[in-house]
UniProtKB/TrEMBL annotation:
Keywords: Oxidoreductase, tRNA processing. Residues 147-237 form the Rhodanese domain. InterPro entries: Rhodanese-like_dom (IPR001763), Rhodanese-like_dom_sf (IPR036873), Rhodanese_C (IPR022111), TrhO (IPR020936), TRHO_N (IPR040503). The gene is yceA. This is tRNA uridine(34) hydroxylase. One of its GO terms (molecular function) is oxidoreductase activity, acting on paired donors, with incorporation or reduction of molecular oxygen. GO terms for biological process: tRNA modification. Catalyzes oxygen-dependent 5-hydroxyuridine (ho5U) modification at position 34 in tRNAs, the first step in 5-carboxymethoxyuridine (cmo5U) biosynthesis. May be part of an alternate pathway, which is able to bypass cmo5U biogenesis in a subset of tRNAs under aerobic conditions. Belongs to the TrhO family. It comes from Buchnera aphidicola (Cinara cuneomaculata).
């Protein structure tokens, strides 16, 4: 009798295990600009619905909308999608990016936080009007504009994102923060005001404000990739289109990057040789700079960005 019970128990455990490992892990990102009357109330609602669902990642709420990047199993996706599409009438048609990731853990916990802005962008004399922004482009139109001589591509991500992957014809706006980028943006593009300007970022949230700012300053031919690079990559795969984004996408989770093509665009900060390694933080905690370094230089400098930092950690 005990043997039968034990055998049934082992069989049940095996079935549960097989069911769990068969599920795919999804990285889902989305944002929506809409007026949130009571961010605290929305936070409590989301927390109560998701805290027992084993969902990991981060969700930011502000009076101007919601922005999320989370990790869930594929069997949870339908519930998750249905829940967020119904939190407000403005989120009903909210676009969600997702990728399948089974190799690495993306997040270790779930963080739900209220912020003043979804992306920090306060600029004097500029009010973000979510109804006055650039024209959305799908992958078909992106590829069409890619060869248009009267069109320029502008990468609105940080330099550490751009250095590991970008559209090969894209220019970047050097700055330490998105707020600084926005301040420089109108003057930086002044000479290109008569051209078509295609802007892009990882998921599209930065370009909503960037294109609105340019429209505010009188730029007329302003476009941005709907859903950002993530959506573009998904579309070129789905419709078997040429892919003009090369290298990797920087992702804001424990994976740090997602490979799109085998092209290696990044260089070692120390020896300036091309390297396929991911970003690391300087081991000198007083510095903590984010950079790329080849294996050889990393060994020589103990994963520090420079000799000065190496000497500090050995003092």
């Amino acid at each position: 009798m005990h043997r039968i019970i034990k055998k049934k128990l082992q069989t049940n455990l095996k079935n549960i295990y097989n069911e769990v490992v068969s599920h795919k892990n999804m990285i889902v990102s989305f944002y929506k600009y809409f007026f949130v009357k009571d961010p605290k109330k929305l936070l409590n609602l989301i927390t109560s619905k998701l805290e027992k669902k084993n969902i990991l990642g981060r969700i930011y709420i502000a009076k101007e909308g919601i922005n999320a990047l989370i990790s869930i199993s594929d069997i949870q996706y339908r519930y998750f999608k249905h829940f967020f599409k119904r939190i407000d009438k403005k989120t009903k048609r909210m676009y969600m990016n997702y990728t399948i990731e089974n190799k690495k853990i993306a997040f270790w916990n779930l963080k739900i936080k209220i912020k003043k802005q979804l992306v920090s962008s306060t600029i004097n004399n500029f009010y973000f009007n979510r109804n006055n922004k650039g024209i959305y482009l799908n992958a078909f139109l992106v590829n069409k504009y890619f060869f248009d001589k009267d069109c320029i591509f502008l990468d609105m991500r940080n330099s550490y994102e751009y250095e590991i992957g970008h559209f090969s014809n894209a220019i970047t706006l050097p700055a330490q923060t998105f707020r600084e980028q926005l301040k420089k943006l109108p003057k930086y593009l002044k000479l290109h005001k008569h051209k078509k300007i295609v802007m892009y970022c990882t998921g599209g949230i930065r370009c909503e404000k960037s294109t609105a700012l340019l429209k505010h300053h009188g730029f007329s031919n302003i476009y941005h990739i709907y859903g950002g690079i993530l959506s573009y990559i998904k579309q070129v795969k789905k419709y078997n289109l040429p892919n003009y984004f090369k290298g990797k996408i920087f992702v804001f989770d424990a994976r740090l990057s997602e490979k799109i093509t085998n092209d290696i665009l990044s260089k070692c900060i120390t020896c300036d040789e091309y390297t396929d390694r991911t970003h690391i933080n300087c081991f000198n905690n007083l510095c903590h700079r984010l950079f790329i370094q080849c294996r050889s230089c990393s060994i020589k400098l103990d994963s520090c960005c420079c000799l000065e930092c190496k000497n500090i950690i050995h003092e």
